[in-house]
Amino acid sequence: MKQVVKKQQQFFYSGKTLDISFRKKQLQKLRNILTENEDEIYTALAEDFQKPLFESFATELLVLYQEIDHLLANIDHWAKTKKVKSSFLNFPSKSYIKPQPYGVVLVIAPWNYPVQLALNPAVGAIASGNTVILKPSENAPHTSELLAKLINNNFDSGFFHAVEGDAKTTQSLLSEPLDYIFFTGSTHVGKIIMKLAADQLTPLTLELGGKSPAIVDTSADLSLAAKRIAWGKFINAGQTCVSPDYVYVHASMHMQLCRLIQKEIRGFYGDDPSQSDDFARIINDKHFSRLTNLINPNKVFYGGNTDAESRYIEPTIMTQVSWDDPVMQEEIFGPILPILPFDYLDEIISTLQNKSKPLALYLFSTDKNNQKKVMRNLQFGGGCINDTVAHLGNTELPFGGIGNSGFGGYHGKTSFDTFTHSKSIMKKSNWLDIPLRYPPYKGNLKWLKKLTKFL
């Protein structure tokens, strides 16, 4: 790890990444590599957790292609030195802000979207002029191996290098003098990463998770809400950090929404989702066991079937659930959807204000007052009104958490800003040197106070 980091430091200080044309060339190269190896990527994702072909393209590659294209179209503008007004106290002078890369960036990727969530922050770091060490997730071993091969066989290791391994490998990397750390994963591991980063005062971004709610009020288009909630929840078998973790629906529509979501599940995956090519599997035995323990058979409205050998968990709806149930104690991160009734929106807002701030929130409502009330009074990373998950597809929208769901953001311009230090510079002229600021100060204070009236 020492050699990997040292080599990247040397490459960065060579100045090559400061050249905008170099950055654009590397981004285009990566895009071409992904395009040329799409079939291999699909195979690796299917081997890791039977990810459907459509989801592999839409949620892994298409998002990356859009991000790279957006960065390529805007780097020149974003990287320009920007002139700002100078202070009267510093007359005569010029002031400007120069975007500057941090240096060596470590990207620690998760397993649930093992291509997109590995490379999306990496391309932002590259666009900003950094070198990148990528640590893919060992929990998606086939995808990790493929990413390492594609990166390490095509890029200078001093510029872009993938390191495979487990938690010990990550810890070893974190002990080196890095310039920036970007981590996507659980809140528990995020706290560990932050403590290790603190030892060297390394700046970082944490993209974590949490229990992201969907709220359905009486004004909602219930059929459309059911379809969009079911899609956002069960895509990637619920293994999505911004999937609706649970639903609050007005009590008068509780059973109706349950039946409509059940209908959508059957429409998406058939009467037996285990036979569907469009439904993914759980990533490993550990997560399968954790999820099956969250299913209370007495509270299952629909679904609940599992198969340990194939790591299959049927899309499951649970009712009669309270905050005391195990399924409400942690982020579910699987195809289990608790649906809870409520009587008054204000009570739900009060309840959620006393919970950890989620990464996402989804409101289904056509009532503008309710929309305003929820958006104003609840804190969350990002979200949608009358949809789920889809906000991630807009490169103009920053993506990131708040509180326990993380801090910092990325996507589009926000990625460039995240991996860039804004260097402030004042250029002072030599033709005039006002003596007011120099000692001895006797008599200078009254003149300084008079000058401040003009500032």
List keywords for this structure.
455 residues, alpha/beta, Aldehyde Dehydrogenase, Chain A, domain 2, 2 domains, 6-stranded mixed sheet, 18 strands, 40% helix, 18% strand
Task: Describe the SSE topology.
Layout: H1 2-13, H2 20-36, H3 38-49, H4 53-78, E1 82-84, E2 93-101, E3 104-108, H5 116-127, E4 131-135, H6 141-152, E5 160-162, H7 167-174, E6 180-184, H8 187-199, E7 204-207, E8 213-216, H9 222-234, E9 246-250, H10 254-269, H11 285-292, E10 300-302, E11 306-307, E12 312-313, E13 316-318, E14 336-342, H12 345-353, E15 360-364, H13 368-377, E16 382-385, E17 406-407, H14 413-418, E18 420-428, H15 444-452
Task: Provide a brief overview of the structure.
The protein has 455 residues and is α/β, with parallel strands linked by helices. 40% of the residues lie in helices and 18% in strands.
The Cα radius of gyration reads 25 Å
> How many structural domains?
2
Please name the CATH topology of the largest domain.
Aldehyde Dehydrogenase, Chain A, domain 1
How much of the residues is beta strand, in percent?
15-25%
Low-confidence stretches: none
Q: Averaging pLDDT over every residue, what do you get?
A: 96
Top CATH class of the largest domain = Alpha Beta
